[in-house]
Design goal:
The protein folds into 2 domains: 1-45, no CATH class; 47-97, no CATH class. The chain contains 3 helices and 6 strands, in the order E-E-E-H-E-E-H-E-H. The protein has helices spanning 42-45, 60-65, 76-97; strands at 8-11, 18-21, 27-29, 49-51, 56-57, 72-74.
């Protein structure tokens, strides 16, 4: 399993600070850890949708619920690209039929 650097967000007012990873929700108090053992990649964290064999899903949980074996995180840019292709293919279909 791949691991990544945590995206620590530090709250002040605690001894040594309280660090909270915005990706995996792990929290840690004291000096900031430089460990690269976060299970969530940046791509997954920034995913706005998930692409599986049967199509797009809003969340990874939706994909798992639809028995998807493997899903790929989709960024905003990728989602826009997919949507553009979808619209273009629909327009082309319409032209061929009409
Ligand atoms: Zn993390």
């Amino acid at each position: 399993m791949n691991t990544y650097q945590h995206d620590w967000h530090t709250s002040e007012g605690y001894d040594g600070g309280l660090h909270h990873c915005r990706k995996c929700k792990r929290s840690h108090q004291g000096p900031r850890l430089e460990a690269h053992d976060c299970p969530v990649s940046d791509a997954e964290h920034h995913a706005v949708a998930w692409l599986g064999h049967a199509g797009l899903y809003r969340t990874r949980f939706d994909a798992v619920r639809n028995f998807e074996q493997s899903v790929t995180p989709v960024s905003v840019d990728e989602l826009f690209e997919l949507a553009s292709k979808q619209i273009l293919s629909q327009i082309n279909e319409g032209c061929q039929r009409g």
